[in-house]
Design brief:
- The structure holds 2 protein chains of 2 kinds.
- By secondary structure, chain A is an all-beta fold.
- Chain A is globular, with a radius of gyration of 13 Å.
- Chain A starts with 8 loop residues before the first strand and ends with a strand.
- Chain B is mostly beta strands.
- In chain B, 0% of the residues lie in helices and 49% in strands.
- Chain B has no helices and 11 strands.
- Chain B starts with a strand and ends with a strand.
- The chains are: A mainly beta, B mainly beta.
């Protein structure tokens, strides 16, 4: 059971906007900690998509954006493209026990 | 941009120790936290731990009793040892780099190796 909860799947048509949620608790997102997002294309390693809640690394399209409110965070993908079909994972610091970095269970984004 | 490549035996027997190595190129090994992360096939990601060039380590509390991460700066590589493995340790193991954060919650994984599959079977 992941400490960060994501929906197993979301879908949208090309050109549409979709959001992926990541729900945590008072020991991680709810404590005000940053959230980071990764994209994993089939058969490849994860790739950093958003860091420190709402920052994009160089080379990541502006169609991807992140936000946070309370104990939840969201990844928005606008202007969906076929190449956006992938698994998406959120990640945050958790202060339980001696502290560690935790991931969400992942969300499969399907472009219809 | 730093580049990483994992290596190690793909098959480990139950109760034995899994040993993997990650070779680093493209930047100084002194500049980052070096992490191991794993992913059982078809499942989510789990952070295992990191090491810094100073020798500082930090491990996932759920694995701490079985994990050791070491660093060889002369060879530009770092290694993972996971003891007493069971079937639940079968996964793709990734090595990944993190910029040294000013706060714990800013730690994220900006560069990843392609991953190596570790199978546990007798």
């Amino acid at each position: 059971q992941s400490m960060l909860t994501q929906p197993p799947s979301v879908s949208g048509a090309p050109g549409q906007r979709v959001t992926i949620s990541c729900t945590g608790s008072s020991s991680n997102i709810g404590a005000g900690y940053n959230v980071h997002w990764y994209q994993q294309l089939p058969g490849t390693a994860p790739k950093l998509l958003i860091y420190n809640t709402n920052n994009r690394p160089s080379g990541v399209p502006g169609r991807f954006s992140g936000s946070k409110s309370g104990s939840s965070a969201s990844l928005a993908v606008s202007g969906l493209q076929p190449e956006d079909e992938a698994d998406y994972f959120c990640q945050a610091y958790d202060s339980t026990l001696s502290g560690s970095w935790v991931f969400g269970g992942g969300t499969k984004l399907t472009v219809l | 941009q730093v580049q990483l490549q994992e290596s190690g035996p793909g098959l480990v027997k139950p109760s034995e120790t899994l040993s993997l190595t990650c070779f680093v190129s493209g930047d100084s090994i002194n500049n980052y936290y070096w992490n191991w992360i794993r992913q059982p096939p078809g499942k989510g990601l789990e952070w295992i731990g990191y090491i810094y060039y100073s020798g500082t380590t930090n491990y996932n509390p759920s694995l701490k009793s079985r994990v050791s991460i070491s660093l060889d700066t002369s060879k530009n590589q770092f290694s993972l040892r996971l003891s007493s493995v069971t079937a639940s340790d079968a996964a793709i193991y990734y090595c990944a780099a993190s910029q040294v954060p000013d706060y714990y919650d800013r730690l994220h994984f900006h560069s990843w190796g392609p991953g190596t599959l570790a199978t546990v079977s007798s």
